[in-house]
Write a sequence for this structure.
């Protein structure tokens, strides 16, 4: 059974579905959920023998798990107090980091903290496949190349993780863990074969090559920092590479110099590809600068937080038009690209403070042991990458899995290995509780021969252990129910997303009556299966409105009205797109006053986004209000980036290629309004 669970864990890292809109998120999410639920059920129903002296060993570093428990507790509270509770619980497209996913992270932490699953072999296998696929992409041998829009990454490697920055975070997090475990094995196994050492060296080298090929500034910076730290703190390891034999010394030095030279040239070539166009240089840095500034404005306006995953609803209020100089014109910002800022805007200062404390405590605890020092460096490096990025399903799951394993290098959380289940299906009847009360009876019967202070200490210790044991069991059983519920939710979401992807494919085809009707049917099917995804609801409503306007299909009205009710429950009226779609619907119904009110509300929520004025011009055209239509046009073109004044530039050429719809608007007559 453990082997099967290891297989599921292996595929949960490398799995993706190229036909799905969230093909690098949902398949992994479903498999991780299956792995966790299977692991907890295995613990619950597995028959094992119990030795005579069964002892529950509560974690020696009890404060650290308590900090993690408090952190997840804060996240759960900010589902309840969120301005949009449904979004906070179910998560937002495309990363789905809502509380339903946070439950999986907590379960992963508890699972490895309990000492149940040794996932080293599965992690090595998964890492090998991820790196192997990355090498195929580097050499242009990717068999799925035609299925991906690789131009968006400018030749950067993304492998099975789906994004170069996320791949860099994954390598920075897992590679030091693999090195740490390898060093530990090397210490315990005296007859290590040379072939194994060579393989592991090549394995590490391949990881570094793929990391460089991602051209992720944050990832390479983080890796450089942890290498520098390891050079100063682990000098003995590097000294051992230089043997007494002069031949070995020279070979080691020459190999090291050649490796540095190769990686330097490779890094230069990779970054040159990324910045082959002039306007790409500094683009990501400047975009993050603008996003961080805008996010800080939101934090200042509501320091206590907005709720998990709600940034995409509120960011348009603070959006600076400068962002469109570095991002796509239709970009919707749903992450701050800084994990601390993401936490702060979601929960206020509490969650980021707890996370920083947790990371500091776990680093301090693990730094004392040589075997775990490399692993703690991986956690530090990972959080350096998150200062320029955000968590994904794979990296978030790995972080909490490794954090639990790191704390459990010496002692167990739920029980010692000697403590096992007494009989099938009776997890709550842990022998520890029975033994505790038996000892209590012995102490009580011999109380005449025991000093009062000793007896009080013994009773206090046993009562604390019983309370802790019961708390562990409540968490364990509660997680089984939670994982069962999230599994069916994630499966439904995956099925709905496949229907959504089919609808998108139909929509990209030539628009004829049957195609549009089939598209709407698929969109509505996705909404029916999983009504908690805003992207499904908005696209379904937009297509239905188009059918109502162009094809006069009155049957579309009922679908539109149902979607508006669901959107209102989901976003609580904070979504500008919903108000603008309502304005379109009211304009088709001839409700001019209602349409104007919805445009005003949508503009108030998103005053500097192109989509606001794109929709407004269409609605005013339907209302026959020519003057307001022209005003909306001017507002739209005032947001366009300055580089359009130079039509010969690469930036201008790519802009018009990405935004061909603007060519149908009177840009030439309004060009003077463009700054």
């Amino acid at each position: 059974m453990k082997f099967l669970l290891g297989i599921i864990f292996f595929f949960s890292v490398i799995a993706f579905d190229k036909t799905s809109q969230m093909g690098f998120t949902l398949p992994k999410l479903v498999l991780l959920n299956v792995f966790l639920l299977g692991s907890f059920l295995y613990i619950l129903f597995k028959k094992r023998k119990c030795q005579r002296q069964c002892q529950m060993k509560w974690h020696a570093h009890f404060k650290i798990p308590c900090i993690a428990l408090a952190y997840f507790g804060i996240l759960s509270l900010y589902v309840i107090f969120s301005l949009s509770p449904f979004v906070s619980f179910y998560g937002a497209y495309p990363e789905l980091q809502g509380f339903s996913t946070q439950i999986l992270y907590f379960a992963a932490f508890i699972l490895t903290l309990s000492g149940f699953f040794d996932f080293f072999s599965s992690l090595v296998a998964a890492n090998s496949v991820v790196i192997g696929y990355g090498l195929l992409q580097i050499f242009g041998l990717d068999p799925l190349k035609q299925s991906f829009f690789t131009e968006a990454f400018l030749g950067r490697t993304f492998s099975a993780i789906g994004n170069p920055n996320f791949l860099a975070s994954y390598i920075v997090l897992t590679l030091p863990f693999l090195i740490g475990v390898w060093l530990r094995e090397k210490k315990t196994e005296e007859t290590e074969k040379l072939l194994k050492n060579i393989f592991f060296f090549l394995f590490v080298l391949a990881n570094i090559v793929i990391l460089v090929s991602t051209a992720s500034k944050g990832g390479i910076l983080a890796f450089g920092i942890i290498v520098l730290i390891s050079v100063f703190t682990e000098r003995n390891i590097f000294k051992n590479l230089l043997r007494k034999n002069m031949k070995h010394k020279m070979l080691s030095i020459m190999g090291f110099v050649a490796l540095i030279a190769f990686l330097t040239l490779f890094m230069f070539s990779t970054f040159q590809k990324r910045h082959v166009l002039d306007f790409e240089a500094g683009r990501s840095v400047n975009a993050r600068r603008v996003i961080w500034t805008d996010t800080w404005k939101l934090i200042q306006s509501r320091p206590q937080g907005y709720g998990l995953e709600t940034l995409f609803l509120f960011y348009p209020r603070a959006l600076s038009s400068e962002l469109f100089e570095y991002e796509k014109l239709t970009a919707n910002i749903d992450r701050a690209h800084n994990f601390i800022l993401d936490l702060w805007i979601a929960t206020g200062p509490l969650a980021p403070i707890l996370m920083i404390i947790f990371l500091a405590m776990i680093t301090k605890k693990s730094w004392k042991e040589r075997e775990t020092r490399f692993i703690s460096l991986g956690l530090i490096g990972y959080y350096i990458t998150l200062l320029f990025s955000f968590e994904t399903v794979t990296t978030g799951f790995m972080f909490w899995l490794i954090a639990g394993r790191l704390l459990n290098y010496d002692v167990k959380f739920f029980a010692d290995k000697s403590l096992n289940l007494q009989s099938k299906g009776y997890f709550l009847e842990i022998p520890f509780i029975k033994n505790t009360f038996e000892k209590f009876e012995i102490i009580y019967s011999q109380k005449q021969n025991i000093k009062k202070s000793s007896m009080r200490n013994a009773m206090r210790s046993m009562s604390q252990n019983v309370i802790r044991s019961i708390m562990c069991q409540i968490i364990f059983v509660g997680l089984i129910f939670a994982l069962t519920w999230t599994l069916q939710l994630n499966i439904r979401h995956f099925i709905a997303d496949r229907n959504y992807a089919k609808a998108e494919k139909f929509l990209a085809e030539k628009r004829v009556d049957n195609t549009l009707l089939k598209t709407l049917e698929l969109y509505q099917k996705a909404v029916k299966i999983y009504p908690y995804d805003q992207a499904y609801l908005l696209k379904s409503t937009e297509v239905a409105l188009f059918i109502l306007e162009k094809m006069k299909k009155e049957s579309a009205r009922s679908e539109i009205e149902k979607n508006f009710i669901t959107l209102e429950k989901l976003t609580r009226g904070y979504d500008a797109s919903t108000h603008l779609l309502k304005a379109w619907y009211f304009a088709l119904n001839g409700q001019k006053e209602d349409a104007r009110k919805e445009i005003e509300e949508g503009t108030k929520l998103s005053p500097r986004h192109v989509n606001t004025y794109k929709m407004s011009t269409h609605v005013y055209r339907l209302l026959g209000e020519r003057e307001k239509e022209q005003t909306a046009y001017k507002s739209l073109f005032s947001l366009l980036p300055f580089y359009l004044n130079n039509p010969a530039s690469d930036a201008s050429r790519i802009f018009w290629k990405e935004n061909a719809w603007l060519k149908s608007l009177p840009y030439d007559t309004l060009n003077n309004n463009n700054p």
